[in-house]
Amino acid sequence: MQTANDALVSPMVRRYTMVVLTVVYMFNFVDRQILAILLPAIRDEFLVSDTVLGLLAGTAFALFYATLGVPIALLADRWNRRNLIAIALAIWSGMTALSGFSANIWQLAVARVGVGIGEAGCSPPAHSMIADLYAPERRSTAMGFYTLGISAGIMLAYLAGGWVVENIGWREAFFIVGVPGLLLAILVRTTVVEPQRGGSENRTDRGDHPPLSSVFAFLFARRSFVHMAVAAGLSSFSGYAVISFFPSFIIRSYDMHIVSLGIWLGLILGIAGGAGFFGGGYLADFFGRIRQRGSLRFVAVTQLIAAAALVGVYLSPTAYVALLLFILPAAISNFYLAPVLAQTQSLVPLRMRGVASAIMLLIINVIGLAMGPPIVGALSDMLAPQFGDDSLRYSLMIAVAVIVPWAALHYFLASKSIEGDLERSREN
Predict the structure, then answer these.
(1) pLDDT interval class at 421 (50, 70, 90)
(2) 337: exposed, middle or buried (Cβ count in 10 Å: 0-12, 13-18, 19+)
(3) Distance between CA 184 and CA 94 in Å, rounded?
(4) Quick check: 320 pLDDT over 90?
(5) Residue closest to 314 by CA, chosen among 252, 239, 393, 416
(6) Which of 170, 224, 389, 412 lies 20 to 30 angstroms, CA to CA, from 90?
(7) Predicted confidence (pLDDT) per residue in 97-126, tens digit
(8) Which pTM was predicted?
(9) How many domains does the chain have?
(10) Does residue 1 surpass a pLDDT of 50?
């Protein structure tokens, strides 16, 4: 079905914009996730505990990334979104490069805070732009394509980071991944087109600027949003704990070489993870063609399957068995993100989209990124006297076995009210 936006944005421009936004998101996750493969070397140099590493990988980054996302999204709903993304990209890329100059763990934590500040300006305006490029019935698939940047970024972080830390040094890894982002920021500013708000749905942008309190009230009056936010936060808790500590778990429990591990994890998280992000969006659109509740129930089932598979991973007798079993959960654990982001955009008016995305990301990152790695790290330290180098194995397994089924319950509860909430949003 052709929309008014088709006449304003050509298919070529739409595809180009999607590709560039996805590449930006890839850089977002390269700079964010490079730390995970570097943690063993950083731990050896600075002599810190798993709790401190969890705070560094999660809380130091998430504290400003999550909280600044909302005010930046308010700006995105009022200002040029393309320019905002270009500025944010330049900030987080520069701070990533500066991470390599850290002389102690505190300086590295400050640099990670700077990365979080910059990355807060990426997804809310990007989600809003995608919603204006693609109609609701194609939006989960589009969001799935955008979230391919996550798996591509993680893949590059592991592939490059493992080799660089072994052959050059962990500081140089930050330089190598940070500097190219500054060039990409110039490309975004000079070549990406800002889409018309509401064009994908033939909706007229009246230029209203609802206050933040109105957006919060609008969203939290919708039960489906509340359950989706809690569910996605819990899924993210498990996900961020896994990607932050999985390399350390494999190295400690199986004594695997870091370069080989980087190749394995890069390929698994890049290929299987990418298939999961895109496939989750596509399948959510497929199951939601008749009733949107079908997409959320599909996500609930896949989360339960992923939890069972991850328990098998942590009980594996060898590193290679663990890595082979990890392929399935690496794919299906990611099914939740694209439909949750797409449904959030569909639930709100045009000038609430950036803030709605930021609120969703705030909840996801407070529960997931700020709490997941440090809690799992602290649990590992508690278990260390009993289990030694295997403490991370059991810490991760406990987190997955408890948190992921809890998330699945909330996806199911969200499915019970999503139809009515979407209808109310269309009436609004």
Answers:
(1) confident
(2) buried
(3) 12
(4) yes
(5) 393
(6) 170
(7) 998 898 898 899 888 888 888 988 888 889
(8) 0.72
(9) 1
(10) no
Amino acid at the residue 13 = V
Reported as a single tens digit per residue, the pLDDT across 174-226 is: 888 889 999 999 999 999 988 887 655 555 555 566 777 888 888 888 999 99
Q: Which two tokens stand for residue 35?
A: 């730390």
With beta carbons less than 8 A apart as the criterion, state whether 129 and 195 touch: yes
What's the pLDDT at 428?
58
CB 339 within 8 A of CB 288: yes
- Positive or negative: CA dihedral 236, 239, 245, 249: positive
How far, in Å, CA of 299 to CA of 124, rounded?
23
Predicted local confidence at residue 150, as pLDDT: 83
Examine residue 27 and state whether it is found in any structural domain, yes or no.
yes
Full residue range of the structural domain in which residue 331 is found: 9-197+212-427
Q: Classify residue 103: in a domain, yes or no.
A: yes
Q: What distance in Å separates the CA atoms of residue 340 and residue 346, rounded to the nearest whole number?
A: 10
How would you class 398 by CB atoms within 10 Å of its CB: exposed for 0-12, middle for 13-18, buried for 19 or more?
Answer: middle
Higher pLDDT residue, 2 or 79? 79
Q: Helices 273-287 and 148-167 sit at what angle, rounded to 10 degrees?
A: 170
Kindly report the CATH number assigned to the domain that includes residue 370: 1.20.1250.20
- Could you identify the residue written with the tokens 């970024």? 153
What radius of gyration, in Å, describes the C-alpha atoms of the chain? 20
Tokens 């449904």 found at: 343
| 404 within some domain | yes
Are 332 and 284 a contacting pair, CB within 8 Å?
no
Comparing CA positions, the residue from 99, 230, 105, 264 lying closest to residue 171 is 99
Angle between helices 293-314 and 319-332 (to 10 degrees): 170
Report yes or no on 204 lying in a domain. Answer: no
In angstroms, the CA 214 to CA 92 distance is 30
pLDDT of residue 26: 93
Q: Nearest 5 degrees, angle CA 240-CA 92-CA 349?
A: 75
Place of tokens 């199911």: 412
**Alpha helices in 192-315, H assignment, sequence order:** 212-220, 223-254, 258-267, 273-287, 293-314
* DSSP code at position 102: -
Q: In this structure, are residues 369 and 61 in contact, taking their beta carbons and an 8 Å threshold? A: yes
